[in-house]
Amino acid sequence: MWTHAAWQEWQPASGDRLAAYADRCNAVEGNTTFYAIPARRTVESWARQTGPDFRFAVKLHKSITHERRLTGAEEELRTFLSAIEPLGPRTHALWAQLPASFGPTDLGALAGFLRQLPRSYRPAVEVRHRAFFENDQAAAQLERVLARVGAEWIPFDTTTLFDGLPVTTAEQEAWSKKPRVPRRTRALTEFPIVRYHGRDATERTVEGWQPWIGTVVDWLREGRSPTVFIHTPDNAEAVPLARRFHAEITARLPELDPLPEPAPSGPMTLF
Question: Is the pLDDT of residue 271 over 50?
Answer without folding.
Answer: no
